[in-house]
Amino acid sequence: MSAATNSGVGAASAAPTPWAISLDAVTVRYPNGTLGLDNVSLDIPAGTMVAIVGLSGSGKSTLIRTINGLVPVTSGSVAVGDRSVSGAGPRALRAIRGEIGMVFQGFNLAGRASVLQNVLVGRLAHTPLWRTLLGRYRDADKQLAYAALDSVGILPKLYSRASDLSGGQQQRVAIARALSQQPKVVLADEPVASLDPPTAHSVMNDLRRINEERGITVLVNLHLLDLAREYGVRLIGMRAGKVVYDGPAASASDADFEQIYGRSVNAADRLSGVPAPLGQGLDPRGESAANPADRADE
Ligand SMILES: Nc1ncnc2c1ncn2[C@@H]1O[C@H](COP(=O)(O)OP(=O)(O)O)[C@@H](O)[C@H]1O
Ligand SMILES: [Mg+2]
After folding, report:
1. What is the distance between the alpha carbons of residues 182 and 68, in angstroms, rounded to a whole number?
2. Confidence class of residue 15 from pLDDT cuts 50, 70 and 90?
3. How do residues 189-200 score in pLDDT, each as one tens digit?
4. Would you say the CB of residue 72 lies under 6 angstroms from ligand 1?
């Protein structure tokens, strides 16, 4: 396997130019009348790492789904790079989504398929239909998949069934799938909410490296304030569909979070407030310690 080198996130191929994201007075009202976003305006320059925080129901998922056009705006406009999302028809929207890597809390992998097959799905938007139907991926696509898996440290799991991997490993496969798209933006919706604390940190580190080394614009929805502070460069706080905080993440105080949450902060708002599973508390790399050579860069 020629790509089995420790190539790092940045070396997979020429980095695509990342996209800026801009929302202008965006309101989303769901068909049942619920307000998902309430007059949100945001300018996120290309290459920014953003943590979006807020309580459950505050509109974080709606924001991410509006940016990739899964949820239509009721009013206002959304643009990514030089493309209008809110004005796009189905075909243009498909093309835009081909450039946006998505990572979800539940990983969204095909459990019975191999890790490699799951990552090759990231090439779908860039692959002619006949090749997909015949399962004949180009060598260049496979190389991108190998490099993406290598960059998140799970290349050795190439032929494993996705469902046989741990949660942290599955999330890394999902990140590799997003990377194999050579995305201009990565949108991650609560990517670490179902992971134990050490694994949550290593997955957040992977997202940070994608941003720092590839320069990709990364938006991560989080509900834990310490993760948002540590990994976000810019912090956007949401409450009841509105942006109620927008500033540097590192300097956001507990009082800022109380204003975002609309209540006092408590232990459950911090990852560090959740006890680590026995035997994992001292190892910041969590599960990836099983494969230290691949992760020695962190
Ligand atoms: N498909 C939907 N139909 C109706 N209401 C929805 C839908 N999705 C989300 N909502 C509502 O929109 C608001 C924002 O939800 P969401 O964006 O999922 O928040 P978060 O991701 O921060 O938990 C909530 O009141 C939620 O109940
Ligand atoms: Mg959500």
Report:
1. 16
2. low
3. 999 998 999 999
4. no
Q: Residues within 5 Å of ion ligand 2 by Cβ?
A: 60-61
Q: How far apart are CA 240 and CA 36, in angstroms?
A: 8
The reported pLDDT for the residue numbered 286 is 40
How far is the centre of ligand 1, averaged over its atoms, from the C-alpha of 290 (Å)?
38
Helix (H) or strand (E) holding 246: strand 242-248
Residue 58 near ligand 1, beta carbon < 6 Å: yes
**83 touches 21 (CB < 8 A):** no
**Which of ligand 1's atoms lies nearest the C-alpha of 189?**
21
Structure tokens at 297: 């860069």
Beta bridge partners of 239: 242
* Whole-number Cα distances in Å, 278 to 93, 192, 196, 229: 46, 19, 11, 25
Handedness of CA 138, 142, 143, 145 (dihedral sign): positive
Tokens 């407030």 belong to residue: 273
Query: What pLDDT, in 10s, does the model give residues 75-91?
Result: 999 999 999 999 999 99
Distance 261 CA to ligand 1 centre (A): 16
DSSP state of 5: S
Q: What is the pLDDT of residues 132-172, one digit of tens each?
A: 666 778 888 999 999 999 999 999 999 999 999 999 999 99
Confidence of residue 128 (pLDDT cuts 50, 70, 90): low
Residue 53 has pLDDT above 80, yes or no: yes
Which ligand 1 atom lies nearest to the CA of residue 65? 17
Centroid of ligand 2 to alpha carbon of 213 (angstroms): 27
Task: Establish how many alpha carbons lie within 13 A of residue 41's alpha carbon, considering only the half-sphere containing its beta carbon.
Answer: 3
Does position 274 have pLDDT exceeding 70, yes or no? Answer: no
DSSP type of residue 163:
G
Task: Determine which residue's CA is closest to atom 27 belonging to ligand 1.
Answer: 57
